[in-house]
Design goal:
Number of helices: 8
Number of domains: 2
Distance between the termini: 47 Å
CATH topology of the largest domain: Rossmann fold
Strand content: 15-25%
Radius of gyration: 19 Å
Strand order of the largest sheet: 2-1-3-4-5
Number of strands: 12
Length: about 230
């Protein structure tokens, strides 16, 4: 297991290195102090996960995240000293997998890293049920493929899992906590921002207008429901 810690504070990198090596066998912790160093390490050494500080000097962590996503889908956990909901949303929208606020507890950080890796390593959910069709959308559960107007949609593993659970419960409201537990895990029950960001990403790919939904309806204060036109 190879973890890249991107932070301009050497003591933070060393602290993470010590915490992980004491608790996790066969882990190698790499360090980078700038955005360019981070890009070079991701491209050259292919870490299994990246812990990326938002407050880097020069080019901030959001810009580094954006650049990494141009060529790699490596799991990325953002680190920030600011407990700002807008920062969290921005990071998730740019492709981050999780978000941890400094100062962090090392056991909490390790639990988050394990959860992110588990989501990436788990195969997408499958089913023997026949393909699901609604309007221009088709979900082939056996092939784990989604097509819109006959064209295959490229979904991330998390986007597919979210859509899978919505369509498998079509017509029924899935509460926020239920979706968070099914897609992210029970330790994410309070992270409603994660759900909102990924629903928005799904809607963008489906061409779904939240004010006049054809597929995903927001049930305010409760959760989301997959519908067909007029449902």
């Amino acid at each position: 297991m190879r973890i890249l810690v991107v932070d301009d504070a050497p003591d933070v990198v060393e602290s993470v290195r010590l915490g992980f090596t004491l608790q996790w066998r066969d882990v190698e912790v790499l360090g980078a102090g700038t955005g360019q160093e981070a890009l070079d390490v991701v491209e050259g050494q292919r870490p299994d996960i990246v812990l990326l500080d938002v407050g880097l000097p020069g080019v901030d962590g959001f810009a580094v995240l954006r650049d990494i996503r141009l060529f790699s889908d490596v799991p990325i956990v953002m680190l920030t000293a600011r407990d700002d909901a807008m920062d969290k949303v921005k990071g998730l929208e740019l492709g981050a997998d999780d978000y941890v606020t400094k100062p962090f507890n090392h056991l909490e950080l390790m639990a988050r890293v394990r959860a992110v890796l588990r989501r990436h390593e788990m195969p997408p959910p499958t089913s023997r049920a026949p393909s699901f069709k609604a309007l221009d959308l088709e979900v082939d559960f056996a092939a784990r493929e989604v097509r819109l107007r006959g064209e295959r949609l490229e979904l991330t593993p998390t986007e597919y899992k979210l859509l899978y659970h919505l369509v498998r419960n079509s017509g029924h409201v899935l509460q926020h906590g239920t979706l968070l537990a099914k897609v992210w895990g029970r330790e994410y029950l309070d992270e409603v921002d994660y759900l909102r960001v990924y629903v928005r990403r799904l809607r963008d790919k489906l061409g779904d207008d939240p004010d006049h939904p054809r597929y995903i309806r927001t049930e305010r204060g409760l959760g989301y429901r997959f519908i067909a036109a007029g449902g």
